């Protein structure tokens, strides 16, 4: 199974996936990283991991449609089976959704449908809920609305800081995401 990872920033999930798939037994290959931000630290991670990367943005194209069509072309040229979003901060539109139906996966740091959007951890923390978690889901045209594949809950501990909660959420993400992708491969 050949995957492309799309990311925009830090890339800790990209790194966790790359490390989990690095042994031949996984039979999952990360063909490339795509990053839409020139300064995304994830590009550095790809370099260190020896994974090829591509970088361009919608501004490089005449339209958003043309940007996504370029992504479709790239994924088709690279014979990609699955697109894995790992902190990719853009909505996915028709060109990619039509080219990869049920083949685009996202991870979100809350128990969807609660707390979608950019600040899932902080929003759950500030809402004062007793538990939050991590969701892995298929991508559709909405913001964190696609069909859920897997969820893992975790309690928000009394007196815990937001930073502590973020650390615990990311730890779950780094373990759950590779595990779920491996399971998808077997389906
Ligand atoms: C993760 O919390 C992920 O759930 C969300 O964006 C964050 C990306 O973090 N979609 P990183 O760039 O993988 O460190």
Explain this structure to me?
This protein is of the alpha/beta class. The protein is 38% helix and 22% strand. It contains 6 helices and 7 strands. It has helices spanning 12-20, 41-49, 64-77, 94-99, 120-127, 162-186, and strands at 2-7, 29-35, 53-55, 82-85, 104-108, 131-138, 148-155. A 7-stranded mixed beta sheet has the order 3-2-1-4-5-6-7. Helix 2 links the parallel strand 2 and strand 3. Helix 1 runs parallel beside helix 6. The radius of gyration is 16 Å and the shape is globular. The N and C termini lie close together (12 Å). Residues 7, 9-14, 86-87, 107-109, 173 line the site of 5-O-phosphono-beta-D-ribofuranosylamine (GRF).
Structural class call reads: alpha/beta
Major beta sheet summary: 7 strands, mixed
Report the β-strand fraction as a percent range. Answer: 15-25%
Estimate percent helicity. Answer: 25-40%
CA gyration radius, whole angstroms: 16 Å
Count the beta strands.
Answer: 7
Unreliable runs, pLDDT <50, ≥5 residues? Answer: none
Bound small-molecule species? 5-O-phosphono-beta-D-ribofuranosylamine
List strands and helices in order, with pairings.
Elements: E1 2-7, H1 12-20, E2 29-35, H2 41-49, E3 53-55, H3 64-77, E4 82-85, H4 94-99, E5 104-108, H5 120-127, E6 131-138, E7 148-155, H6 162-186
Parallel strand pairs: 1-2, 1-4, 2-3, 4-5
Antiparallel strand pairs: 5-6, 6-7
Helix pairs in contact: 1-2, 1-6
Bound molecules: 5-O-phosphono-beta-D-ribofuranosylamine (GRF).
5-O-phosphono-beta-D-ribofuranosylamine binds next to helix 1 and strand 5.
């Amino acid at each position: 199974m050949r995957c492309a990872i799309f990311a925009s920033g830090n890339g800790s999930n990209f790194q966790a996936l790359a490390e989990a798939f690095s042994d031949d037994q996984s039979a999952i290959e990360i063909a490339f990283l795509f990053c839409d931000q020139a300064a995304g630290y994830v590009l550095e991670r790809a370099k260190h991991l020896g994974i090829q990367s591509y970088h361009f943005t919608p501004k490089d194209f005449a339209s958003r449609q043309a940007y996504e069509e370029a992504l479709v072309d790239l994924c088709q040229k690279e014979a990609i089976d699955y697109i894995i979003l790992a902190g990719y901060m853009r909505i996915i539109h028709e060109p990619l959704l039509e080219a990869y139906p049920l083949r685009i996966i996202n991870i979100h740091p809350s128990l969807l449908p609660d707390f979608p959007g950019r600040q899932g951890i902080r929003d759950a923390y500030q809402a004062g809920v007793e538990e939050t978690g991590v969701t892995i889901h298929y991508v559709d045209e909405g913001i964190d609305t696609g069909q859920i594949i897997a969820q893992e809950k975790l309690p928000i501990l009394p007196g815990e800081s937001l930073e502590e909660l973020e650390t615990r959420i990311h730890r779950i993400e780094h373990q759950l995401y590779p595990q779920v992708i491996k399971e998808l491969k077997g389906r």
